[in-house]
């Protein structure tokens, strides 16, 4: 490596100064000085040490962040008290900022080294002004999107990291900060799902029902919407606009409102449906009947979306395809299943996969209609109709089992991500792209 590259290893921008690129040198040097000043200004060297303050509280932002992420705190009582989740968040912020600094540092070394080598070969070097102009022209999109990417990193990516790392701690109702500290426990929480009968039974039961629910909720609404779209677009149907308006009304009403209305409508004791029938049917209190009712109501809410989607696709079909099929002797059923359905399925498959993922995490439908009921005594913090996302909600809000809820979130990501990726890669739309 050139001498300019080695200089930039120790002080950012020093190699650029040696290459007579003062603009770039000041830019890299200012970044390094900013980090140093933040560390100094946030330490007790400037603020002053308080009597009885733990030693770690005198560290600067980056040192304290790394210390807090590793230890999750050491002080639980007295005037000063560590808060483990806060220390983890501060540590994640510090690590992300330091990762950005490492990236800039590596780029700074490579830039100084390449510029020096190019000068040795050609005797010419690019000025800082020409460099910034080139960056503005060739990488304008990256420059403009950088603030948004940084904001996304701290608003969206960092909470995901935080939830991920919580799975490796003992953060639960028995370790509740700031009264208590939490500790790293490694993969012990994952072992509970395999080794403890209660957690194993709950996970297998809830995960199985979640997959069944997502599959049935997706395909019933898909084929229901397809049936209505074909029916409404039939040339024998009159007043098509009126029928479309009627069928789309369930989609126009907010889903939460509809679910709360159905919850009262299917109430076993005072629900209008049982009163009209003169029966005492436990629509939402029997485990199997509650699941059937949930799928039926989701059918009511989800069919209009697929109906409108299919209608748009069907009206855009090239009619000459059907003329060719008629010449080949195909009847109406053969034209639908051999021509219409394959083309339609290839176009809606990505949306069908997205619908499956949405139903897999359809919190509102289960929560507002059954709230996971009826109760299952064999489950840990879950009912018969709970899906993984509502189980996670109960574990966090009602029982403060944050570590186990984090594990379930990771498993949901792996399941949904794996299924969606596999299906997307098999679709014609993905292959064409």
UniProtKB/TrEMBL annotation:
The keyword Cell membrane applies. It holds the Pfam family BPD_transp_1. The chain crosses the membrane at residues 26-50, 85-107, 149-169, 211-233, 245-266, 292-314, 335-358, 401-425. Gene3D superfamilies: MetI-like. GO terms for molecular function: ABC-type maltose transporter activity. GO terms for cellular component: maltose transport complex. Residues 207-420 form the ABC transmembrane type-1 domain. It is found in: Cell membrane. One of its GO terms (biological process) is maltodextrin transmembrane transport. Keywords: Cell membrane, Membrane, Sugar transport, Transmembrane, Transmembrane helix, Transport. It is a multi-pass membrane protein. InterPro entries: MetI-like, MetI-like_sf. Belongs to the binding-protein-dependent transport system permease family. MalFG subfamily. Part of the ABC transporter complex MalEFGK involved in maltose/maltodextrin import. Probably responsible for the translocation of the substrate across the membrane. This is Maltose/maltodextrin transport system permease protein.
């Amino acid at each position: 490596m050139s001498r300019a590259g080695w200089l930039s290893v120790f002080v950012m921008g020093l190699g650029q100064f040696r290459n007579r690129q003062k603009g770039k040198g000041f830019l890299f040097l200012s970044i390094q000085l900013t980090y140093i000043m933040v560390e100094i200004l946030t330490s007790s060297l400037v603020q002053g040490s308080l009597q009885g303050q733990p030693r770690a509280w005198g560290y600067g932002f980056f040192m304290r962040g790394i210390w807090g992420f590793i230890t999750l705190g050491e002080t639980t009582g007295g005037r000063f008290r560590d808060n483990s989740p806060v220390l983890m968040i501060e540590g994640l912020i510090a690590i992300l900022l330091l990762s950005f600094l490492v990236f800039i540092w590596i780029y700074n070394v490579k830039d100084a080294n390449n510029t020096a080598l190019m000068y040795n070969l050609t005797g010419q070097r690019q000025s800082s002004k020409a460099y910034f102009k080139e960056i503005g022209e060739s990488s304008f999109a990256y420059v403009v999107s950088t603030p948004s990417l940084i904001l996304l990193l701290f608003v969206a990516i960092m909470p995901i990291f935080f939830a991920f790392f919580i799975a490796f701690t003992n953060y639960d109702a028995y370790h509740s900060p700031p009264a208590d500290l939490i500790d790293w426990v490694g993969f012990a929480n994952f072992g509970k799902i395999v080794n403890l009968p209660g957690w194993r039974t709950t996970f297998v039961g809830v995960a199985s029902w979640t997959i069944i629910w997502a599959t049935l909720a997706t395909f019933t609404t898909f084929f229901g919407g397809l049936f209505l779209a074909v029916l409404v677009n039939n040339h024998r149907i009159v007043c098509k606009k009126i029928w479309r308006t009627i069928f789309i009304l369930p989609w126009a009403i907010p889903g939460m409102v509809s679910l709360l209305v159905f919850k009262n409508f299917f109430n076993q004791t005072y629900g209008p449906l049982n009163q009209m029938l003169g029966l005492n049917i436990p629509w939402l209190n029997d485990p199997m009947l509650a699941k059937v009712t949930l799928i039926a109501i989701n059918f009511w809410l989800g069919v209009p979306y697929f109906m409108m989607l299919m209608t748009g696709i069907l009206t855009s079909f090239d009619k000459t395809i059907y003329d060719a099929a008629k010449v080949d002797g195909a009847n109406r059923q053969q034209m639908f299943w051999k021509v219409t359905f394959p083309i339609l399925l290839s176009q809606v498959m990505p949306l069908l996969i997205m619908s499956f993922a949405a139903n897999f995490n359809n919190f509102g439908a289960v929560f507002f209609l059954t709230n996971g009921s009826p109760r299952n005594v064999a489950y840990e913090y879950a009912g018969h109709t709970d899906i993984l996302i509502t189980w996670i909600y109960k574990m966090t809000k009602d029982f403060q089992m944050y570590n186990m809820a984090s594990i379930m979130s990771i498993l949901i990501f792996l399941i949904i991500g794996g299924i969606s990726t596999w299906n997307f890669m098999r679709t014609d739309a993905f292959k064409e792209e």
